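Q: Could you fold this chain for me?
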Amino acid sequence: MSDPLLEAAKLFDIRQQRSAPKPGEVAPFPALNYADLKPEEWEWLWTGRFPLGEVSYLEGYAGDGKSSVMADMVAHVSDGVGLAADQDRPPAGVIWFTTEESPTKTIVKRLKLAGARMANVRHIDTVALDKERTNLSGFTFPSGRGRLS
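A: Sure. Below is the predicted structure, expressed as structure tokens.
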């Protein structure tokens, strides 16, 4: 059985995997020649709004429903149900990173109501990280996966 978190991390870190140096090598300056690049099509989670394999942000004012929208999207991804009828795919892992709401008082309730497959969802606890004065800078996937519990 594949690890859904690792699968999400692989999608999230496509760019780094393409240019990662071999052990002992120094990473070259990433200057690419456009003559060597081939156009790629976007693969979408939500067509025109949320591409797969890319970092996406959902911003808005307090009370606008950001976490409710995210809980619904997370439920779809974690359970493999597409946002559109023709977009079903295998269940996948999701990493929820927020600085606004409590995972136990708010987010877990919304995820359950939305029907998320809870075992496929992880939360990065920014409050605990702040208390430990842990620095997230330089955190990348999948190489940073060992820092997640």
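A (continued): Strands lie at 44-46, 50-51, 94-98, 121-125.
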